[in-house]
Amino acid sequence: MTENRRHSLSDHAFEAVYHPIPQAPVASEPFRPSLELSSEESDVELDSANPPVEVDARIRWIHFVLGCAVLLPWNVMITATPYFMSRLEGSSLQSSFSSYLSTTFTIANFSLLAHATATSKQASNSRRVLFSLTWLALLTALLTASTWFHPPPGVFFTFVLLIGMLQASAGSYLQTAVVAVASLFGHRAMQAVMSGQAAVGVIISGVQVLSAAASTRIAPSPQVDVVALSRTAEENSAALFFGLSTVFLVLTQFAQAWMTKLPGYRTLLARSRSRVRPPPVDSGEIPDETHTLTAGGRKTMNGRVQMLRLVRLNLPYNIAVAYVFVITLSVYPPITISVRSSNPGTHQLLFSAIHFLVYNVGDLLGRFLCSLPRLLVWSARRLLTFALARTLFIPLFLICNIQWSSPAAIRPIITSDVLFMLILLLFGLSNGYVSSMCMMAAPSVTHNPRLRGRTEDVDVAATVASFCLVGGLTLGSFASFAVRAMVCDCNPFAA
């Protein structure tokens, strides 16, 4: 029974997603020049029969943790917004801080992702993961230290935006490398990464709910300076949160290093290295460490042509995954945060915190559904239809109990808190499900007939899909300015 279960897991784990190990005799093993082996890893003995690599639960859980780390920087910055805003109190920069933070973060992420994508063939993914995690840990440690200093608002504003841009830059390389390594183990590892990205949002928003509930129940003493007390509490809370995030990133480095020592990972890399052929002996050349880099360099000469071809070839998948996040970021949270509770006894701070939690729970649930075989949808046309259908959420949110600047703007039709939360739950569920299915299907030679079984296109297809995902985040971030201007009837860049 146990042996059959292990074989079943192995069969599922090696389904092609990015640069896969093939299932049984379906496809040949792909060439993987972008994975470099350390001298220690290259000593692994190769079995001439190339048996399937066993992907155990440890590897999938590590990919889950890596998925958490990928979106941790963004969630750190968003969750710490009350702390940042308290430091900018009394400054004209306070009201527009959130918009500037999201825009600069996504622009940096999108820009550096282009470089990470272009150089992915020549880079060692394991080294990129460790290097990116190191930088993210250092940057988060700087945020921890910032809670003990009080520079002028303008200096602090610049400092936070700079830290955010640097985190986004490091996160771009981390995202590219994590997706590459996860895809080697098939769609289950990819699903673990996507679930980790959603799980970190649930954890952080859960902490927000607890903090909001505690703060709204505490009645401050009249003798205490309430403003000073709240600032002190925010600084202490931020220091604890930043510190825990730093520790998590450091532990993730150890998890990544441990994964590279696991038999399945070492066998996978050794098999990938075996695909690199040394120069002929009669050519007079001596094989050395530069041969792999040279081969990778020659292969990337046609990389741009190949990438543009796959942009067109997988256009439905690429448009779908981008459009999912255009819709999501254009209304969440600019419109959703403006919805007010119809219950006068519910504090708005708590209501907003719960709304973040509900969305993240839906997002996580949607990504979890991708692990159920009966619910998998691989059709590009159907996934694109699902993505376009999410546009209907915009008018649904607009007729909720929104606090408009103009009282006569739109009369609310949906005034029930429960119904609003249900719509928000479905919004998050559709975001997680459709985006995950697009990322799993686009580079799959098994389920994407557009690739026509060409394993050499798998890595580029996954990279293009990931790039389109971040492009959708960027476009959605810009669209949020227009949505915010519509709701507040103001200049979103200055108010």
A few lines on this structure:
It contains 17 helices and no strands.
CATH class: Mainly Alpha
Structurally, how many domains make up the residues?
1
- Number of helical runs? 17
The stretches of 5 or more residues where confidence is low (pLDDT under 50) are: 5-52, 224-232, 276-301
The CATH topology is given as Growth Hormone, Chain: A
State the shape: globular
Structural class: mainly alpha
- Write out the CATH superfamily name: MFS general substrate transporter like domains
| Mean of all residue-level pLDDT scores | 78
- Termini separation comes to 64 Å
Main sheet overview: none
Strand content: under 5%
Name of the CATH architecture = Up-down Bundle
Furnish the topology, listing elements before pairings.
Elements: H1 2-13, H2 57-79, H3 81-87, H4 97-118, H5 125-146, H6 153-184, H7 187-217, H8 226-259, H9 263-274, H10 290-299, H11 303-313, H12 315-331, H13 348-369, H14 380-389, H15 393-398, H16 417-441, H17 458-488
Walk me through this protein's architecture.
- This protein has 495 residues and is mainly α.
- It has one domain (15-43, 52-277, 286-488): MFS general substrate transporter like domains (Growth Hormone, Chain: A, Up-down Bundle).
- 66% of the residues lie in helices and 0% in strands.
- It has 17 helices and no strands.
- The chain has helices spanning 2-13, 57-79, 81-87, 97-118, 125-146, 153-184, 187-217, 226-259, 263-274, 290-299, 303-313, 315-331, 348-369, 380-389, 393-398, 417-441, 458-488.
- α2 (57-79) runs antiparallel to α6, α7 (187-217) packs antiparallel against α16 and α12 (315-331) packs parallel to α17 (458-488).
